[in-house]
């Protein structure tokens, strides 16, 4: 599944801690004031973990690490800045995916200085303006986020503004996009969420006790993309520069073979040589599989101890090329046996996005 011959591109969850209470997040109890639920263990990876596994020799084989994850915000990890400093010193490109509501402006300036060493970037997830952003990014302050963003951007380090579309914020897209350009963001990226499923609304309770409902947007990222392309074409010279791709694929023979797919499964992790490590240290194929019942079933069927696939048990470089990654996932794809792989990488039940 993962190749020693290609650069690694890790997806890594530093912590399950977060300052926000986003109602659709799997760490949140939306019916209980958007408090954290019992999935949250308040654990994190540390600088010592990275010094042990991401040595200078191993970093030479690592192209890219995205600090994000399923439950937490990387800035809530106490060693986040030190980890970024460690990785960039050894030439690794780092993506920091955050709601932007934590840390001081001085901390953000240091982050900008650290990330400029390599082709690194901050992905700032802000879903609206002053009044609308806290309706989803519960417990965050728009003014604090903007102050942090200004401090970071002033260093010259790049950032991208990510914006989930809802009914309550779609009318602010144009204004938010214009603000992102004035501030110097490199990209403004709209996201269509799949978290509504077949529902047309999602009820939740704010920390104040007020009950609200999220509703799907009436327009998609593709609708806005078409609109802005037409507007930009009609006003040449108004843009700050070319929009860079949201995600750059790895082009080589092994990646091409993975991209061709197995039984309809086009595994993003295999295509990009992109293992996932969660905040407890477990190594998984991706964030969807991580510690799920489906992943536990893969281990149990093969008679493997899942706890031996934790970076606090044995070396990361050894884990990556052991079973089940060596052949068992390929076997399951051939037989169409893994429900998560079928849903996410065959049926493509994922969020969609467009840089506008």
Provide a descriptive summary of the structure in words.
With 356 residues, the chain is α/β, with parallel strands linked by helices. Helices cover 32% and strands 15% of the residues. The protein has a 9-stranded mixed sheet, covered by helices on one side. Strands 2-3 form a two-stranded antiparallel ribbon. Strands 9-10 form a two-stranded antiparallel ribbon. Helix 3 (80-89) packs parallel to helix 4 (105-115) and helix 4 (105-115) runs parallel beside helix 6. The radius of gyration is 20 Å and the shape is globular. It starts with 7 loop residues before the first strand and ends with a strand. Residues 238-246 have low confidence and may be disordered.
- What is the strand tally? 13
| Largest sheet: number of strands, sense, barrel closure | 9 strands, mixed
Helix content: 25-40%
Order of helices and strands: EEEHHEHEHEHHEHEEEHHHEEHHHHE
Low-confidence stretches: 238-246
How far is the first residue's CA from the last residue's CA?
A: 33 Å
Query: How would you write the strand order of the largest sheet?
Result: 12-11-1-4-5-6-7-8-13
Structural class: alpha/beta
Beta-strand fraction estimate: 15-25%
Mean of residue pLDDT? 91
Q: What's the shape?
A: globular
Q: How many whole angstroms does the radius of gyration measure?
A: 20 Å
Question: Count of DSSP helices?
Answer: 14
């Amino acid at each position: 599944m993962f190749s020693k011959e290609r650069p690694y591109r890790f997806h890594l969850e530093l912590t399950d801690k977060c300052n926000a209470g986003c109602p659709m997040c799997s760490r949140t109890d939306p019916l209980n004031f958007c408090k954290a639920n019992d999935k949250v263990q308040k654990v994190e990876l540390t600088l010592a973990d990275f010094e042990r596994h991401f040595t200078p020799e191993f970093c030479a084989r690592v192209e890219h690490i995205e600090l994000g994850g399923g439950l937490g915000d990387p800035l809530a990890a106490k060693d986040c800045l030190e980890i970024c400093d460690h990785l960039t010193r050894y030439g690794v490109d780092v993506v920091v995916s955050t709601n932007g509501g934590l840390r001081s402006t001085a901390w953000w300036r240091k982050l900008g200085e650290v990330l400029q060493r390599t082709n690194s970037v901050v992905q700032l997830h802000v879903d609206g303006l002053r009044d609308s952003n806290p309706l989803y990014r519960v417990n965050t302050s728009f003014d604090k986020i903007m102050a942090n963003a200004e401090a970071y951007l002033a260093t010259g380090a790049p950032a991208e503004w990510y914006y989930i579309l809802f009914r309550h914020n779609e009318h602010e897209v144009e204004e938010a996009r214009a603000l992102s350009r004035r501030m110097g963001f490199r990209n403004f990226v709209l996201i269509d969420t799949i978290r509504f499923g077949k529902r047309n609304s999602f009820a939740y309770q704010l920390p104040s006790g007020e009950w609200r409902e999220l509703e799907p947007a009436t327009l998609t990222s593709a609708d806005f993309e078409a609109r802005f392309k037409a507007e930009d074409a009609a006003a040449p010279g108004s843009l700050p520069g070319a929009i860079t791709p949201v995600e750059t694929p790895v082009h080589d023979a092994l990646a091409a073979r993975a991209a061709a797919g197995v039984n309809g499964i086009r595994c993003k992790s295999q295509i990009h040589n992109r293992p996932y490590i969660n905040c407890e240290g477990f190594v998984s194929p991706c964030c969807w599989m991580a510690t799920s019942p489906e992943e536990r079933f893969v281990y149990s069927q093969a008679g493997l101890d899942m706890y031996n696939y934790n970076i606090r048990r044995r070396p990361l470089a050894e884990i990556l090329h052991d079973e089940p990654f060596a052949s068992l996932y390929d076997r399951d794809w051939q037989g169409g046996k893994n429900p998560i792989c079928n849903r996410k990488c065959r049926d493509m039940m994922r969020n969609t996005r467009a840089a506008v």
